[in-house]
Amino acid sequence: LDLYYNIIAPPCRVVLLFAKWLKLDVNLIEMDILKREQYKPEFIKLNPQHCLPTLVDGDVVVWESSAIIIYLAEKYGKDDTLYPKDIAQRAKVNQRLFYDIGTLMRSVHVYFQPILIGGEGKPEDFKKVQEAVGVLERFLHESRWLAGEHLTVADFTTAVTVAALDGTLNFDLISYPNVLRWYEQCKRELIGYTEITREAAQRTEEFLGRFRAMRAAELQQQQQQQQQQQYQ
């Protein structure tokens, strides 16, 4: 199993966590996003969307984190609890997965994007984050885990999103007791959760430092070019 990844990307952390849970021997291939290594011809040949994470299992190539962990659950899971075969149970797991991708993670991404480049998030975007977490609170009022009484693939994806809320945005979960209870449970029970999250936080700070330095250099170069044009 080869995994092309960068730990600062939440979807990559999802796959790292899930692989640890399944105790899989994975060959990790780190890609430097700022050096645009994901656009190298050999990687685009492997994955035309040039996105991370990308998993290679023999002749099988899978990208998109949810697709990867579903593949791993079905091929390497000891039973079907992580991704149920029962149609109704699977539908619930899928719904939670799509909620994380399309609502929770999206709201976090939209709010955080301007912060990434040194700006501030918009209050209306932060409200959408609060609304999305409110939905998660209602989900977790019903059961121990996100889609029932058993851990499923949906818990891995959403746990990484909530970790980003907690670590990157310092989002206060105290008003969401069910989310807080579940989040603490994830930190205790998901193998490698604390270590992966801690390393991701450190590497993200390094990445942001490099990114902002590059942006500052680009802006300075643009200003110099504009000044030169004015004197021509």
TrEMBL record:
Tree of life domain: Eukaryota
Entry-linked CDD domains:
GST_C_Delta_Epsilon, GST_N_Delta_Epsilon
Gene Ontology molecular function: glutathione transferase activity
Key word Ligase present = no
For this UniProt record, give its keywords in alphabetical order, as a comma-separated list. Answer: Transferase
Cite the SUPFAM superfamilies for this sequence: GST C-terminal domain-like, Thioredoxin-like
One GO BP: glutathione metabolic process
Describe the location of the GST C-terminal domain by residue ranges.
86-207
Q: What's the top EC group for this one?
A: transferase
**Per the database record, which ranges form the GST N-terminal domain?**
1-80
- Kindly give the PANTHER family that the UniProt entry links to this protein: GLUTATHIONE S TRANSFERASE D10, ISOFORM A-RELATED
Protein family membership: Belongs to the GST superfamily. Theta family.
Subunit notes for this chain? Homodimer.
Name of this chain's protein? glutathione transferase
Organism listed in the record? Anopheles marajoara
